[in-house]
Amino acid sequence: MHNTNCIAMLLAGGQGSRLAPFTGQMAKPVVSFGDRFRMIDFPLSNCINSGIRTIGVLTQYCSDSVHDHITDGEAWLRSATTKHSGEITMLPASKVSSSGCYTGTADAILRNIAYVDEHHPEHVLVLSGDHIYQMDYRPMLEFHKASKAMATIAVKQVPWREAHRFGIMHTDEQSRIVKFEEKPATPESNLASMGIYLFRWQELRSILLEDAANPHSSHDFGKDIIPAILAAEENLNAYPYEGYWRDVGTIESLWEAHMELLDGEMSLTTETWPLRSKEVQPVRKPYVSPQAVLSNSIAHPGCTIEGRISRSVLGAGVSIGKGSGIAESIIMPGAIIGRNVIIHRAIIGENAVIHDGAIIGERNHGDIAVVAPGEAIMAQLMNGSSSKLKALEQLEQFEKSATELVGTGEERFSNSVLHY
């Protein structure tokens, strides 16, 4: 059912500096995820699957990268079964701000008031464009309506060690928010805001205009708007969410989210909840050699694979050369991995080139190794017997592990997804 009572405003202007170098030439929401998706595909698909098909996408940093991915929105809207399939509208800061920037998340909505008013919604759903999760927004909307709240915030308990990264809530027995702390140094709760807000539009509109007139405000939902609603003692509710959700804001969390995908903690797409994206044709003719091994991995069907892959995710157009071993790694679309390459606990950027014999990453559990998009890595010149011995030991270990996995027929692709 097409919901005209609620429209979505999707904040997709983030620079994502902590995800550098993957955000050097693109906005954080369009960083690659899985074998064929981008982060922004999750909230976009959630909206479509939830019957919300009027979506404004607010862009700022590297806005062209977001526009190029979404284009006219047809990849998401074509699944609509209603006569009016909806619209996905790009709302760049350059068109509504003389500086070409939004000063905060609330300022982004404020500067697009005319767009919202044009659709006359009763409710507005404000979303982040860079979170990994699959959520039906309809139960949250019904909860929001039933409680007659001015605003409802989706919340989830996060590990205590990560609580300082989030807006933290304190609620009463009726799920009403009684206290809010934006990224507290010493959290007193681990109930975190998911950055998913539902507002009654006319009341939010008034608050945004009041906030715009405040010279001391940073014009941000977490820092200014939510505290203002609490201070006014308005009805502000928390909607608990129990499913998988990840704020992928760092290299480590990007890697961990992919490992959780391989562990089955989440799925990319199902018949009942399809994840949609702009279709990209493989840049090379796909090929999987008889000697290739995939174990506990996900590989786009447009890959060329001649090496041994364990617990890794390969994007579209990736090429893995003969004799190479890839473990616990993410190989983003278009990357070329040469022969006899060893990659362990690493993220290889889009269109990077790893030349024959290169070794990337460590076998221990140190930092995640990173290769920037488009970067070329040559084999290291090892001038000591100990370095040569270490390289040989690594290669032998990969060869031993891969050999144990090699079988016949489907055994070569144990617990892996290659074609679907």
Fold and architecture overview:
The protein has about 425 residues and is α/β, with parallel strands linked by helices. About 25% of the residues lie in helices and about 25% in strands. A 7-stranded mixed sheet has the order 5-4-1-6-11-8-12, sandwiched between helices. The protein is elongated, with a radius of gyration of 23 Å.
List keywords for this structure.
420 residues; 24% helix; six-stranded parallel sheet; seven-stranded mixed sheet; alpha/beta; elongated; 29 strands
Q: What can be said about this structure in brief?
A:
With about 425 residues, the chain is of the alpha/beta class. Helices cover about 25% and strands about 25% of the residues.
Helix/strand layout:
Elements (H helix, E strand, L loop, with lengths): L5 E6 L20 E2 L3 E2 L2 H9 L4 E6 L3 H8 L3 H4 L9 E6 L12 H6 L2 H7 L3 E6 L2 E3 L3 H11 L3 E7 L9 E5 L5 E6 L8 E10 H12 L8 H11 L4 E5 L4 E3 L3 H12 L24 E2 L4 E3 L2 E2 L4 E2 L2 E3 L2 E2 L4 E2 L4 E3 L2 E2 L4 E2 L4 E3 L1 E3 L4 E2 L4 E2 L8 E3 L4 E2 L7 H21 L15
Parallel strand pairs: 1-4, 1-6, 4-5, 8-12, 14-17, 15-18, 16-19, 17-20, 18-21, 19-22, 20-23, 21-24, 22-25, 23-26, 24-27, 25-28, 26-29
Antiparallel strand pairs: 2-3, 6-11, 7-13, 8-11, 9-10
